[in-house]
Amino acid sequence: METSIKLPLGGKLLVALDSVGNVAQLAGDVLVQSLQLKRVGYFSHPSLLAYAAADPNGPGFLASMELYANADRTLFLVQQRAPVEPHGREQFRADLVTWLAGTKSERIVLLAGVDATQRIDCQLHGTPMRRLAATAPDARTQAVFPALEPRDDPTVPGGIFVPGGGLARSLLAAAQQAGLPVELLSCFAYRGENTSAAMQFAAALCEGLGLLAPGQTLTPPEAWRLLFGSPPDPSLY
Q: Beta strands 107-115 and 12-16: pairing type?
């Protein structure tokens, strides 16, 4: 994992992973916009697919994987915008865990979407938010992110199934094995237009992690305005 980012970081670290519907990355973009996070570095890895795009929020460019931070460096956000090459996942995961350990973060929160079409009966109603971790959550987080329900399926190791979550489950397990203070917060999502789900996910993160200061509100990125085209003409209905 090559990066110019100086370690340790400390504080709270969010890691938005490539997953179903891009809901984690979209929620990350909402946090960047709303909390006024600034890009402080880029990541490079042989297994991370190449990606680059103009940054709609100002100078610079968007890349495969970036790090953002707030002004007082107490909150950090990793944005993984590109997938990992299949044959390099194991090395990427190991290198990312090594980097996470070097941050000395007080709390590491993995963010991912989970395929909503794979829900079981008890997950069809209520909040789409879920939490997965070996440690007990604080009361604030638990109120917003109930525990992910295990499956009664002998083919699923430990009953823990995170469909569409990409590296989320295996990265969580590897980070836990390394003794890191890590947890996974997820949102059930479909493929397609997920801006509303991303706003809901971002709002849940702000509530569950206490990210918003008094008077702050969530603001969708300006780049979303025409992301999925103009809204339908109301007169048609």
A: parallel
User: Which pLDDT belongs to residue 1?
Assistant: 76
User: Which of 17, 205, 5, 30 lies closest to 102 in space, CA to CA?
Assistant: 5
Residue type, 41: G
Q: pLDDT tens for residues 104-155?
A: 999 999 999 999 998 988 888 999 999 999 888 889 999 999 999 988 877 7
Q: Which residue in 97, 117, 213, 105 sits closest to 163, CA to CA?
A: 117
The single-letter DSSP state of residue 148 is P
Phi, psi of 146 (to 5 degrees): -65, 160
Token output for 175:
């980070």
Q: Cα–Cα distances in Å, from 179 out to 40, 79, 97, 157, 165?
A: 26, 23, 10, 21, 22
- The pair phi, psi for residue 2, each rounded to 5°, is -95, 130
Are the beta carbons of 184 and 173 closer than 8 angstroms? Answer: no
Question: Could you tell me the pTM of the whole model?
Answer: 0.93
Spatial distance between the Cα atoms of 205 and 210, rounded to a whole number of angstroms: 8
Evaluate whether 184 touches 134 at the Cβ level (below 8 Å): no
